[in-house]
């Protein structure tokens, strides 16, 4: 049985009789989902390398948020092998379900960011989609183990009843690459991947939304 403060993803914010939003029932709790990946399952030291520092960054963020009384249970701190695409989706959905409209959802990612040839809805001016790459990203199956910018935009838009803070410490997270003057193992770029027309779709599936529009008002993005 659902807890009293749980809501479905598609549940509407309570409305007053005059049709305005009833803010008296809105929440002010902060929840966080933290991901840090140094070790990649299919790292080969060439096309995909392991990192140093991403897990430490995630732990520092976890501790800082907990000191501020943000709700960060261990099950929403995904490090290395715990941080798969499927695990992220489960943790995100659980966090959204736990929160009330008006609450703040914080998602932090430290790990590889990559690019691939633009796929539908073909909205990238440079012809490239940006991705964040999870532990199970496979260079031989580059549609798996990663999340596209359109997918992130889609899940954020669907959670429009909440305030969302997304903190991304990965290459291409804001369209810019970290300076290569730093030691290579510290540069969080996952490279550029060609997607074949018959490549299987990512699993589990997520809603997608063109990210060519301005960032929704309920979403704040911080990139590093």
Automatic annotation (TrEMBL):
<keyword id="KW-0378">Hydrolase</keyword>
<protein>
    <submittedName>
        <fullName>Peptidase C14, caspase catalytic domain protein</fullName>
        <ecNumber>3.4.22.-</ecNumber>
    </submittedName>
</protein>
<dbReference type="InterPro" id="IPR050452">
    <property type="entry name" value="Metacaspase"/>
</dbReference>
<dbReference type="Pfam" id="PF00656">
    <property type="entry name" value="Peptidase_C14"/>
</dbReference>
<dbReference type="GO" id="GO:0004197">
    <property type="term" value="F:cysteine-type endopeptidase activity"/>
</dbReference>
<feature type="domain" description="Peptidase C14 caspase">
    <location>
        <begin position="30"/>
        <end position="174"/>
    </location>
</feature>
<feature type="region of interest" description="Disordered">
    <location>
        <begin position="1"/>
        <end position="24"/>
    </location>
</feature>
<dbReference type="InterPro" id="IPR011600">
    <property type="entry name" value="Pept_C14_caspase"/>
</dbReference>
<dbReference type="GO" id="GO:0005737">
    <property type="term" value="C:cytoplasm"/>
</dbReference>
<dbReference type="InterPro" id="IPR029030">
    <property type="entry name" value="Caspase-like_dom_sf"/>
</dbReference>
<dbReference type="GO" id="GO:0006508">
    <property type="term" value="P:proteolysis"/>
</dbReference>
């Amino acid at each position: 049985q659902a807890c009293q403060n749980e809501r479905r993803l598609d549940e509407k914010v309570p409305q007053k009789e005059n049709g305005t939003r009833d803010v008296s029932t809105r929440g002010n709790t902060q929840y966080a989902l933290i991901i840090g990946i140094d070790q990649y399952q299919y790292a080969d030291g060439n096309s995909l390398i392991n990192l140093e520092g991403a897990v430490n960054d995630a732990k520092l963020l976890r501790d800082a948020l907990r000191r501020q009384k943000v709700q960060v249970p261990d099950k929403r701190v995904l490090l290395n092998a715990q941080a798969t695409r499927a695990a992220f989706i489960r943790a995100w959905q659980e966090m959204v379900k736990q929160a009330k409209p008006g609450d703040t959802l914080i998602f932090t990612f430290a790990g590889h960011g990559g690019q691939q040839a633009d796929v539908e809805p073909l909205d990238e001016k440079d012809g490239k989609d940006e991705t964040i790459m999870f532990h199970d990203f496979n260079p031989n199956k580059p549609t798996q183990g990663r999340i596209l910018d359109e997918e992130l935009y889609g899940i954020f838009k669907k959670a429009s009843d909440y305030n969302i803070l997304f903190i991304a410490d990965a290459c291409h997270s804001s369209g810019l690459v970290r300076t290569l003057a730093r030691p290579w193992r510290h540069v969080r770029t996952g490279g550029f991947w060609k997607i074949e027309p018959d490549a299987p779709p990512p699993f589990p599936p997520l809603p997608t939304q063109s990210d060519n529009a301005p960032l929704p008002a309920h979403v704040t993005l911080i990139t590093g």
